[in-house]
Amino acid sequence: MLSVKNLSKKFGTKKVIDDVSFSVPQGGIAIFLGQSGVGKSTLLRVLNNLETIDAGALFLDDKPLDLSVANKEHTCGMVFQQFNLFPHMSVLENITFPLEKGATTSSKKANEIGQALLDRYDLLDKRDAYPSQLSGGQKQRLALARTIALRPKIICFDEPTSALDPLLTSHVAQTIQELANDGYIVLIATHDTALLDKLNCTIYLMDNGKIVEIAESKKLTQTPNNYPRISKFVAGAIE
Q: In CA terms, which of 15, 62, 144, 176 is 20 to 30 Å from 76?
């Protein structure tokens, strides 16, 4: 289980994350919903040691999570909004390079892992292609394969459907649900409400750096009136 307690982060005088607390069990999905600038992406960046925190504590399986070594230990993985693939490397090399350099995996083993993941995500026939030759959906699958290769316990998605055709949202949701079923802790920052009814998840609505309302996806569907702020956001009538 990932537990985040009283997390705060400032940029200058602006509190981007303001006393945020939540927990996500193994195999659980947490969606951080809200408009741009409310702190969703910053929260994921903190977990991946891309931003430092000003206050708060994090625990993984009841042990303190040391973010300063999170990258070295590959505790968290991030699938970025713009994918952040290596443009000068082939599809296969995008997976094998981090394994060899970041996880000191042998070239032979890295190649085996890479090919297996490309096969899993229907990219094996693209192994010698370059990211510029891939569609948006293919780029996202490659970015996910690269993340999974390092075997993190936590996988973060920043706006996973923003760069994709809306028709692909269901496929993205299916992939995310499969990750949770495999035992990963999955965190998603998004403003796309189309994902909510496609995932078994906990929804955290954020505003001004705070979590202002929480709902389980099934309960939101059954009793939307019990969650007025999330329901209003979903309806598009944002304050």
A: 15
pLDDT tens, 27-39?
999 999 999 889 9
CB distance 150 to 181 below 8 Å:
no
Structure tokens at 176: 């995310």
In one-letter notation, the amino acid at residue 131 is P
CA distance 32 to 38: 10
Q: Can you give the three-state secondary structure of 60-99, one letter per residue?
A: ECCEECCHHHHHHHCCEEEECCCCCCCCCCCHHHHHHHHH
Q: Give the single-character DSSP code of 109.
A: H
| Mean pLDDT value across residues 121-147 | 94
The residue ranges of every structural domain in the chain are 11-75+152-239, 85-151
C-alpha dist (Å) from residue 3 to 65, 107, 154: 9, 36, 12
* Domain formed by 11-75+152-239, architecture: 3-Layer(aba) Sandwich (3.40)
Write the pLDDT tens digit of every residue in 69-101.
Answer: 776 777 999 999 889 999 999 999 999 999 998
